[in-house]
């Protein structure tokens, strides 16, 4: 892979990391930072990002990227889910509309 493609992928992952962080900080309590541990593509062709929050690997997640961006499709550990602020999470687009 050439550097141009790698740089573009890294830039895209940074955008998606920021979107995941926005989502988690808005919808969950006491989220200070997000660490990315793995990126990939499922056998069905869906890009995903795995990681955890607050330096605690028990607070882990796997976020799916549909239509080019992370919006709200996320699986998470029960420990992270227990930090939910609301009954229903808001998507990244809904959160940005509130700003």
In terms of topology, how is this protein built?
Elements: H1 3-27, E1 34-41, E2 47-53, E3 56-64, E4 74-76, H2 78-81, H3 92-98
Antiparallel strand pairs: 1-2, 2-3, 3-4
Task: Pick out its properties.
alpha+beta, four-stranded antiparallel sheet, 3 helices, 4 strands, about 35% helix
Commentary on this structure:
The chain has a four-stranded antiparallel β-sheet. The protein has three helices and four strands. Strand 2 and strand 3 (56-64) form a beta hairpin. The mean pLDDT is 93. It is α+β, with helices and mostly antiparallel strands. It has helices at residues 3-27, 78-81, 92-98; strands at 34-41, 47-53, 56-64, 74-76.
Order of helices and strands: HEEEEHH
Most strands sheet: 4 strands, antiparallel
Please give the count of helices: 3
What is the topology, as strand order, of the major beta sheet? 1-2-3-4
Please mark out the parts with pLDDT under 50 across 5 or more consecutive residues, or reply none: none
Helix content: 25-40%
